[in-house]
Amino acid sequence: MALSRRELLRRGVAGSAVVLAGTAAVGSARFRAPHWVSGDPFTLGVASGDPTPDGVVLWTRLAPDPLDPEGLGGMPMAPVSVDYEVARDDRFRQVVVRGSAVATHQLGHSVHPEVSGLEPDTWYYYRFRAGTAVSPIGRTRTAPRAGSAMARMRFAFASCQSWTYGYFTAYDHMADEDLDLVVHLGDYIYESAWVRGREGSTAPDFSGEAVDLRGYRLRYAQAKGEKPLQAAHAAFPWLVTMDDHEVHDNWAGEYNGPSFDINNLKWLFRRRRAAAFQAWYEHQPVRIAQMPDGPDMLLHRRYGFGALAEITMLDTRQYRTPQACGDGNQVYDCADRLAADRTILGARQRDWLLGGLTTSPARWQILGNQVAMARSDYDTGPRELLGTDGWDGYVADRNALLGAAAARGAGNLVVITGDRHQNYAADLRRDCADLESPVVASEFTGTSISSGGDGADMSHTGRTLLAANPDVKFFNEQRGYVRVELDHELCRTDFRVMPYVHKPGAPIRTRATYVVENGRPGVTAAVQPDAPELTTAPVATAELASGPH
Asked: How far is CA 460 from the centre of its chain?
């Protein structure tokens, strides 16, 4: 009987899930593919992710010619054996796991070994070997044991890294941070054709939008080739999800965004979505549970970090109903966004999310969310001008989530968000449209790594949002990332920003710091304002960082 494509892909990576504590090689008993024989196949670096108390998933993709126009990375069609080691030290004198995975052309010669049997809350080092070629060394960390005491946790979150709009310098700074984890909230690549925005750099000729596996692979290869991004992946384990640009701008379920062309045919978009999902899986440190089945993929999942925190990664694209009142941009008087049957999560994910918030014993509940949850009115007058691609367009789901957080005592709920290319700190109310409604959660929206170009500290959009939305307490439109530190009494959030991305070497500083206190939902400036001109919300005194790397 012929095997399905999914079964073939599963068999192609079956060896990647086989691990063994100790020194014996694994995977050779049943099948051993040939080794790589020449050149450097590790041009895209290494990564780890989805940590648990006893393990982590490792990642690399063999690509001696990563921008090979065919999207094959310069690899042959034949499978290749890839060995890996995990050790307690960076010189690999104390190896605790050795194994072997089979890299196949069906998955772009990527491997995702799932390592288990490790000690909880422990740093490890790992590397890969293909033939005589040895990869860069990566560092990773397991999660604390479930329910165990944990004094503090530090992580950074990021999103929106358009290669063409600027350099990924922010990741150089992130790699130097003292972190336990990195969370990426989507727009890891952009599917669109290039627009030049970098000094001293020439983009390859990727004509047109990515719509097939070749096109998506080339865009991941270009992003993964950036040394700052490689450094941040090698320094910490990551939790990743996707937003819209990994597939198509503003896509929603089986709907291919606002353009009315042949791509809106459902069958054709499902084929495109399958290609985009496969390319995402091929380039991310995720488990076999996240391997796509054609145009479907399990993205929502949760990870615990002792008794201190639980991070829940959401999927706000795959199950949503199409945007209300047009293409998701700002509109006036859109009654459809209030409809009870409109969903951004889908019923099954919503029930799973609410159930987890109710039962989790963790002190802090962190939601990894793609699009803005806080109300965002873009008109200072009496009428509301609201975008419908974010949670403002899916009011029933927002009310269900925030209502459950209030009614069920779900703990300290902090939402971390990407997408906007802007920094926000905002209160979330039981009913975000009613300023008399109680504050039940907090949201921190992070700016882009590079998308949108250099940006500015303040803009007309920022002044409008601050004036029209009392629950938005801070705004900034520079590039960078957000650093979060949790302990048992405080969630501290630092907005880390740079003055430019059009050329490499930008310094970084902490533009503002906001905190959430245990048992007191809502955001508070850590220091009384020392605000630049035209900023109307409280911000912290800027902290100057060291010079460029």
From this structure: 28
